[in-house]
């Protein structure tokens, strides 16, 4: 074996000439007791060497073994092997063994598994393949390379993880987002009280991306940032490999890669981690699999612009600019994170209020008109509720049966009213329980707003002249019988409609997706409608096809609960002022008589 001095010299040459082909250390030559040198960043952007001892080669599945190593040196006595070191290259005799990629929670020694270099470098040949990433490996905390029968498998072994590092977000506010990230195999990490990596991001040249350098998958830039940090394993010209474990194990992808600054290492008994922040985007992540990530140093792909504006009664208007990674699964979550994080900081002392949200969406297809979505929210958790609504809306656009709808930009306008109570519908009566065709009829609606209770009269149109149906058809005879008259806020109406006639809301192409979304009620109105056996009847206006509420919109197979259920043909819509949030649902029986109202003849 060469001396450590010679090894260091060889590695220095390797780092300064990253375009040179790398020689791989054969796994068959791995044996306990060997020592090697690994490289990583522990402060700033300086790549530092450290010594590792080879403990053993661990049998894996399909011939993809792992190598168990121990990191040596004073820096590992307190912090062990930390998250953010994933991808740190390990060399033996100047040849690349692989990348440190998995460590052990609560370990008393600085132990880690190394993903072999061969398994990582082959990722470049898999770009564009249709088979995707490793099947059955969506849980990135698992170690599918290891033989389940191996004694070396430990329940405490985890990847040198991929916490999603979030800056500019109150750590308490991340709680609501934890479950959503857990489903993607990610954990959230609040890295600081303010963001870094926005428009003022520090500069990182592509030439600075070398083996051992800090690197990040950029997900969100602006007043709130989100990124997955790791380490570069190998660079060959414009080609770059890192992590040694998956990001999302999603196969082909197109996400921004950025440089990173390391501010320090936070020791932890559970799992230590590097505190890092983004610098400029330098490349594109092209392939994401169980053995690591692969990309190109090409400056990075275009991100989706997101503008957020806040209007307050007692404060000046404010706005923020974000850039969001274009990713089918992550994009809705990132938009929620941007809006919720920024709003929470702007309205930190205002825990309860009313919020009207308006989203303007512009499409890559310039022949499509911009789409506007609106809704209203109230209560103590109004910020989280509103941002969850935005996430659901964006989920429909990105994760529908027809595939993601290409977008060019989003503008979110928010109208905040401090305090206040919703307008709650508490009772509903009618001036007569039996209605003849041609008669006008009046609803008596009773409302509560805070401590105030009051009533209003709502005049309904007479049921004459036939009832409008879809496609211009008309129903000239409304059959006599017992019906149900309903009044509800717009969101409650959509829930009701979804359970009665879900088959109306299936969509198989982008035009249908946009049609459904464009017909969403804003939440700032009351809806009045009539229902009966097999009929959903218009009171005023033409046919509407209101969509299933957000969770149901994403279902691919929707069938009506009642095959005889008719269509909602329309409803009387009572619009409310921007600061009013309607809440409630009431229904009463109504008998429709067969004999029409007598009319006085003209002399």
Characterize the structure shown:
It contains nine helices and 32 strands. It has 603 residues and is mainly beta. A hairpin with a 6-residue loop joins strand 13 (251-266) and strand 14 (273-289). Helix 5 runs antiparallel to helix 6 (382-398). The chain is elongated. Mean pLDDT is 77; it is low at 1-20, 132-161, 193-200, 464-477 and 537-570.
Helix content estimate: 10-25%
Strand content: 35-45%
Q: Structural class of the helices, strands and pairings?
A: mainly beta
Give a count of the beta strands, DSSP E runs of length 2 or more.
32
Strand order of the largest sheet: 1-2-3-6-5-4
What's the end-to-end separation, in Å? 119 Å
- Low-pLDDT runs: 1-20, 132-161, 193-200, 464-477, 537-570
- Average pLDDT across residues? 77
Number of DSSP helical runs: 9
Shape: elongated
Short précis:
By secondary structure, the chain is mainly beta. The protein has 9 helices and 32 strands.
Provide key terms for this protein.
14% helix, disordered N terminus, mainly beta, 32 strands, 603 residues
Please describe the topology of this protein.
Layout: H1 4-16, E1 35-41, E2 47-58, E3 66-72, H2 76-79, E4 89-92, E5 95-104, E6 111-116, H3 117-121, E7 157-159, E8 163-167, H4 175-182, E9 187-192, E10 214-221, E11 225-236, E12 239-242, E13 251-266, E14 273-289, E15 292-296, E16 304-312, E17 315-324, H5 331-346, E18 353-363, E19 371-379, H6 382-398, E20 407-418, E21 423-430, E22 434-435, E23 441-449, E24 452-460, E25 467-468, E26 474-475, E27 481-489, H7 490-500, H8 510-518, E28 525-532, E29 535-537, H9 550-553, E30 572-575, E31 582-583, E32 585-592
Parallel strand pairs: 8-9, 16-20, 21-31, 22-32
Antiparallel strand pairs: 1-2, 1-4, 2-3, 3-6, 4-5, 5-6, 5-7, 8-11, 10-11, 10-13, 10-17, 11-12, 12-15, 13-14, 14-15, 16-17, 18-19, 18-20, 21-23, 23-24, 25-26, 27-28, 27-32, 28-29, 28-30
